[in-house]
Design goal:
about 15% strand; 6 strands; alpha/beta; Rossmann fold; Arc Repressor Mutant, subunit A; 11 helices
């Protein structure tokens, strides 16, 4: 991990300490900060300027609640935190207890997913790869993200949810997230989550590319 700045995020302080000790065994990288998962993660990014975030989500599912942070400053869900991190352009590696939440994390924009029992050597290899923008998936998590049935062509109705189709249509009209949120009576962070889901499902890197791909695939008639 040559000169890699790492920010550790985990609810359990013992887990944060354990990860810091684990990474200290590897040469080159530096743990520049530690945070709890319910803290202001974006403020942490501005404070510590990490190259990559390692986020341990513990044993209980962090994705049990949908992304519905209130506009009045309610507590953000784990999914909304991950969407915020992607919007900030920050590389993040998530550690999961099992395969149940792999697809939710992928949809939120995470491109580094490993199981919590990962060894130090694997973690040391994965972190610089994620920091450089590469996809890093534990084989078991990869199968959860991309089940074998997805190798078969899916119809538009199967591929996108009704809400995603609504968001896609408004994206095609060139509307910003806030306007889409007002139009659909949902929070702006929920819109961001749906946009990330669309980018993931359509294999697009931008909103414009998503609209172009969706049109070619028959999702949109412009």
């Amino acid at each position: 991990m040559p000169d890699l700045r790492v920010l550790i995020v985990a609810d359990d302080p013992l887990v944060r300490t354990g990860l810091a000790l684990l990474l200290a065994q590897q040469s080159g990288g530096t743990v520049v900060g530690q945070m709890a998962g319910d803290a202001d993660v974006l403020a942490g990014l501005r404070l510590y300027h990490p190259d990559v975030v390692v986020w341990d989500f513990g044993w209980q599912s962090p994705f049990s609640a949908p992304p519905t942070r209130s506009e009045q400053g309610g507590a953000a869900t784990a999914l909304e935190h991950l969407v915020d991190i992607r919007e900030a352009g920050q590389a993040v590696l998530v550690l999961l207890a099992d395969t149940a939440d792999a697809r939710s994390a992928w949809t939120a924009g995470v491109r580094g997913l490993l199981l919590r029992d990962v060894d130090a050597a694997t973690l040391a290899i994965a972190l610089p790869a994620v920091a450089q923008g590469l996809v890093v998936l534990d084989p078991a998590l990869a199968l959860a993200v991309f089940p074998l049935r997805q190798l078969q062509p899916a119809s538009p109705a199967e591929a996108l949810t009704p809400r995603e189709l609504e968001v896609l249509q408004l994206l095609a009209e060139g509307l910003p997230n806030k306007t889409i949120a007002d139009h659909l009576h949902i929070s702006e962070h929920t819109v961001k989550f749906h946009v990330n889901a669309l980018l993931s499902k359509l294999g697009a890197q931008s909103r414009t590319e998503a609209v172009v791909r969706a049109t070619r695939l028959g999702f949109l008639l412009l």
